[in-house]
């Protein structure tokens, strides 16, 4: 099994990624406030099933460059980072699994660059337009977003009391320590928050092309930020196959707190048996 740590020049920045295994490529995209390490319970399982697993640190996170300006974190730039990374590694097409912001990037790529994405698995976050139309309860769930958009105040709030607020995000042991380690470096927490500050229009319905590739949306019933409706209603924006899966008793970080169930769904939907036979 191959296990590489890569630094790749793409879209004007240096992107860090890990590559594990051999076979068809699965691209794993993390969200806030994670790095590629959030996939630590998926990478070995997917690689053992016959996949080549590519897990980058998105811009601003981990060992990837963190440009200084808010406008450096628009979804247009985030999309271009991913496509640039694939181009640099000479990868034509991937199956994409995204969580949180990684899922939003995945929806964008599935709609705007479908020739590069074979299948999409969106964890927690549904289609942007489904979120925008999900109603008042969904807006209340996302009441933290305006706070995240306040420069300085958000950073102070999240760091206060030895990162007390972030300790409430998940019950996964040790996860907050990873966040602290990765976000304490100068500029890193601000870079993570700039995803919210640069993409305020996401609160509005999106004029994206309809998604024509197969999509599986996985939602966990203890997610405080995203409701079931926004994931179920994502079917309205997909012309291809749309499969909804509900996982009980898992928080927003379901790839960690319900990893066995998530891994089983990934292997089934992404075709592990086929991967093994062609690897």
Concise overview:
The chain has helices at residues 43-48, 75-88, 101-112, 128-132, 136-141, 144-148, 153-167, 175-183, 188-197, 228-232, 254-257, 259-270, 272-278; strands spanning 3-10, 13-20, 25-29, 52-56, 94-99, 117-123, 215-220, 242-247. It is α/β, with parallel strands linked by helices and 279 residues long.
What does this structure look like?
The chain has one domain (3-141, 210-278): Rossmann fold (3-Layer(aba) Sandwich), CATH 3.40.50. α1 (43-48) links the parallel β3 (25-29) and β4. The model has no long low-confidence stretch (mean pLDDT 95). The chain is of the alpha/beta class. An eight-stranded mixed β-sheet has the order 1-2-4-3-5-6-7-8, sandwiched between helices. It has helices at 43-48, 75-88, 101-112, 128-132, 136-141, 144-148, 153-167, 175-183, 188-197, 228-232, 254-257, 259-270, 272-278; strands at 3-10, 13-20, 25-29, 52-56, 94-99, 117-123, 215-220, 242-247. It is globular, with a radius of gyration of 17 Å.
Give the strand line-up of the largest sheet: 1-2-4-3-5-6-7-8
Q: How many independent structural domains?
A: 1
Rg estimate, integer Å: 17 Å
Number of helices: 13
Q: Average pLDDT value?
A: 95
The tally of beta strands, per DSSP, is: 8
- The residue ranges in which pLDDT falls below 50 over 5 or more consecutive positions are none
- The CATH class name reads Alpha Beta
């Amino acid at each position: 099994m191959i296990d590489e740590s890569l630094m790749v020049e793409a879209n004007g920045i240096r992107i860090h990624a890990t590559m594990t295994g051999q076979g068809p490529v699965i691209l794993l995209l993390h969200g806030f406030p994670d790095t590629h390490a959030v996939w630590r319970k998926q990478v070995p399982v997917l690689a053992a099933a016959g996949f080549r697993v590519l897990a980058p640190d998105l811009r601003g996170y981990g060992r990837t460059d963190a440009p200084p300006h808010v406008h450096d974190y628009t979804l247009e730039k985030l999309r271009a980072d991913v496509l640039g990374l694939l181009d640099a590694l000479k990868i034509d097409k991937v199956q994409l699994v995204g969580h949180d912001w990684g899922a939003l990037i995945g929806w964008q790529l599935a709609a705007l660059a479908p020739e590069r994405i074979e299948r999409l698995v969106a964890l927690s976050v549904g289609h942007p337009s489904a979120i925008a139309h999900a109603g008042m309860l969904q807006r209340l769930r996302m009441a933290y977003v305006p706070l995240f958009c306040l420069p300085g105040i958000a950073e102070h709030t999240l760091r206060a009391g030895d990162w007390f607020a972030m300790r409430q995000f998940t019950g996964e042991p040790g996860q907050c320590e990873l966040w602290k380690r990765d976000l304490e470096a100068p500029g890193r927490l601000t870079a993570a928050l700039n995803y919210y500050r640069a993409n305020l229009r996401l609160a509005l319905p999106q004029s994206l092309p309809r998604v024509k590739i197969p999509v599986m949306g996985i939602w966990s019933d203890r997610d405080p930020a995203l409701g079931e409706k926004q994931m179920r209603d994502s079917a309205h924006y997909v012309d291809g196959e749309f499969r909804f899966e509900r996982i009980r008793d898992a928080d927003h970080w379901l790839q960690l707190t319900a990893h066995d169930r998530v891994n089983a769904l990934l292997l089934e939907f992404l075709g592990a048996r086929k991967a093994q036979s062609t690897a």
